[in-house]
């Protein structure tokens, strides 16, 4: 199982437009954060979790060769607005691509991308996506996927637990808290990736401190925080992490 962080930033990305803070102007490339997305390859199947507004740049920059399925955490703009660029993978792979999410997420995607799957018209290039509403475990190829309901404001939001070839990966990029049941499902997995927005409290996201507390409860073999604002300098934040927890950055590759 291999995971590539296509993006590790919050909705504005980093650098933020019009900001000259020390993180936004940093020479450390780990402080450049596209909107949060993860690419997972396992058992011959290639999955993208969320198609951000940066999706085209992410695919080109980090060399994504194939997309067999898309998992959507929720329908906020920073997680869905790159879906149109899936059409290039339709052409390369000569097939429609399934996209999974909660019922409300799929409803929003059908509304936002109401031109997807319309009858082909000469000269018109549309994505071909098979939207699938899910509320329980399912499979993508030989990858088992468990949707994990988490609290993120008023919008229905999933994290995901992916399992294949004896390995398990958890990804929860947008989260204010998790239930004990969800924590229990994730305990002892090989890789856990969790929202860690900033130090200052936020109504719909975990702080770094709260994220670390959840990660310690989960006790994964390797743990990372993601979905970070420009409040967090990479090196400074990483140096303060306890053993076993690190700070993700765009382009980071994890081989399990």
Provide tags for this entry:
256 residues; alpha/beta; Metallo-beta-lactamase, Chain A; 7-stranded mixed β-sheet
Annotate the secondary structure layout.
Layout lengths: L1 E6 L29 E6 L2 E5 L5 H8 L6 E3 L5 H4 L6 H7 L3 E5 L1 H10 L16 E5 L4 E3 L2 E8 L6 E8 L2 E6 L7 H7 L4 E5 L12 H11 L3 E5 L7 H6 L5 E3 L5 E3 L1
Parallel strand pairs: 3-4, 4-5, 5-6, 10-11, 11-12, 12-13
Antiparallel strand pairs: 1-2, 1-14, 2-3, 7-8, 8-9, 9-10
What do these coordinates show?
This protein has 256 residues and is α/β, with parallel strands linked by helices. The strands form two sheets. The protein has a seven-stranded mixed beta sheet. Strands 7-8-9-10-11-12-13 form a seven-stranded mixed beta sheet. A hairpin with a 2-residue loop joins strand 9 and strand 10. It is globular. The termini are close together. 46% of the residues are buried.
Quote the distance from N terminus to C terminus.
5 Å
The count of helical stretches stands at 7
Number of strands: 14
Q: Note the overall shape.
A: globular
The structural class is alpha/beta
CATH top level? Alpha Beta
| Average pLDDT score | 96
